[in-house]
Write a structure and sequence with these properties.
- It contains no helices and eleven strands.
- It is mostly beta strands.
- The strands form two sheets. Strands 2, 4, 5, 6, 9, 10 and 11 form a seven-stranded mixed sheet that branches. Strands 1-3-8-7 form a four-stranded antiparallel sheet, with no helix packed on it.
């Protein structure tokens, strides 16, 4: 069983940066893929960045060049460094994990079995 808890959300002005963290409780050796998603009211959950045990990363076009996904295996933690934040980056950010890798659609929400409760990011002008 995998438990995920996000942290690092908050309020920031446009152009600023935030670093999200996702603390995982499961065995890293049994975890194949992890990802960050964002949801805003009225819209589907959007995959932003994914990473797997083979070192493959994938980014949504909306965040490419601005967001970076990384992992600290020793600390069992996933990170999302978010730079040059825009107002449209506002939303509830979720961490997700699955035991499989590679995933057929690593930025699609239904690929992931485990989810954190989310952390809110608000970007203002």
């Amino acid at each position: 069983q995998e438990q995920l808890v996000e942290s690092g959300g908050g309020s920031v002005q446009a152009g600023g940066s935030l670093r999200l963290a996702c603390a995982a409780s499961g065995d890293p050796a049994r975890r194949g893929s992890m990802a960050w998603f964002r949801q805003v009211p009225g819209k589907p959950r959007e995959g932003l960045a994914s990473s797997n045990i083979f070192g493959t990363t994938e980014y949504a076009d909306s965040v490419k060049g601005r967001f970076t996904i990384s992992q600290d295996i020793a600390k069992n933690t996933l990170f999302l460094q978010m730079n040059s934040l825009k107002i449209e980056d506002t939303g509830l950010y979720y961490c997700a994990a699955d035991s499989r890798a590679p995933l057929r659609r690593p930025l699609f929400f239904s690929e992931y079995a485990y989810w954190g409760p989310g952390t809110q990011v608000t970007v203002s002008s």
